[in-house]
Design a protein that fits this description.
This protein is α/β, with parallel strands linked by helices and 598 residues long. It is elongated and about 105 Å long.
Length: 598
Amino acid sequence: MEQHAHTGDARHDAVSPSYLTALVANALHAHRSGQLEQAAPLYQEALAINPIHTEALHYYGVLQHQRRQHAAAADLLDHALQLEPTDAVCWSNRGLVAAALGRHEEARRCYWQALQLHANFPDARNNLGVTLQAQGDLEGAVHQYRQALVLNPSLVDAHLNLGTALTKLDRYDEALACYEQALSLDPNSADAHFNAGNAMTAKGDSAAAIVHFRRALELRPDFANAHVNLGSAVGKLGDYAEAEQHYRRAVALKPNPTNLVCVGGSLGAQGRLDEEEVFYRRALELDPHYVDAHQNLAWTLLKRGDYAQGWAEYAKRWRPHDYAAIAIEGVPEWHGEPLEGRTILLVGDQGFGDQLQFVRFASELAKLGATVDVCVREPLLPLTRGVAGVHRAWSSGKAEGRYDFWAPLMSVPSCIGTELSTVPADVPYLFADEAKVEMWRERVDKAAGSRRKIGLVWAGSPTFGNDRYRSMRFEDLAPLAKVEDVAWFSLQKGPSQAQLADTPNDAEPRDFTAELHDFSDTAALVMNLDLVIAVDTGVAHLTGALGKPVWVMLPANSDWRWLEHRSDSPWYPNARLFRQSVLGDWAPVVDSVAEALR
């Protein structure tokens, strides 16, 4: 957000200018020209001659604010206001200094004072909007920005700030209109292009966002945040190598924890694990509590199989708002205290696959003497209720009864010290409803005859961060159709299911997915198959937990839970892993799967 400071107009006495008047005029001229180092000694000399020269006090204060010497600026402006309390411009600039010191309520009072003195003061309106926005009053900020633009439609900063507030209110089209107006006034505004890129990103249009971010960087090559956001935008489209370049440039300009973690993440996304760890550790040197660095470092360590360090880092992964969304009020979080005779609630976090993988730990805590309840997402409830050790499972609403502890489901391994050699891998630990299994049996057998019955999943949720690389298109599986003696069954849900519409009839798998309403329905169908072949999705975890054979096709930048280089999994003894060697190249993987089937 942009706030606007005044540097005033030079005052000249055309008849016989005094030395002091000329001195202040020259200081203001240099100041307005951006020559702060030339202006500063002129202000100082003027104040040495006349310590109560209000104009010199005022604008030397503004200069100190621009130098980020905000405390000194506050003293100078306060002195000026004591001498001239009706100077609306000085009050507005004093508000800028208060805001820079983080004193938003004080800033708000300064702007209101300026507006009491000069109601039609667009810069004060704009600055007040910035402060209201910083205090969380977005609607109030929008009102002030609009008022500023009524008074001065050409105030570019107000257009930008209005767009920022509207973006935060999820009113992206209105925000884009503001940025377009700003660009019509100043086509070379890097900030306007940057903000337009952010709005396009929020709308999900990465390609349009990239255009704006690139233009922002043409106009301002050292715009660190634009490098970061361009890196993120090209990364969403799968170009992690270019993302890395932009993140590295951002680190060179601003070596802060966020930018360091971005570099590490881009390296990890390219499968370069040995290189990414150093960036997370550098970020933690700068900020030992930086959550994203702990989380990414945890994933790196866990993928290497270093569970001792990995789980310890993973326990530090929480952002406050994420943690607050699942924390149980009035119940202490469990960190490994004795559980004999205690009642604990395990709360599912992350996605379906994560919860299917980690619900196994309910039985481990029951073995420690705990009564274990579990809260998971609705489609998982029927299966969760049948897990050994689960006393009660629910998905929404207030928990009934009293609990001694609660814990995020995925934090349990860090509390009990799970190592690779101690992963609880007794399968099955999920069980399909027998009546549903029987219901599917005749239909599946009739469709397959004597052929092998194999299920397919080729894509996950498109909202997953690495979905571009962990998912494939159905057409990529074409070599499997040449394998003889197989009846194929689609287990694919979501948008990618529509890809079957373009499949030739002789290659189209049987598709019963319209009848799969939750994971218990899918489990019953899986129990009638001989094998499931899937990318890294909830169905892969479901099949593994049911004890059925599952072959998982993994990208080169696979998720931490599948470790490195292995073709087996300590989590699912019935799993076989097929890995890419080149990111994005599924052909050798599918060929290997086809050969294994033959």
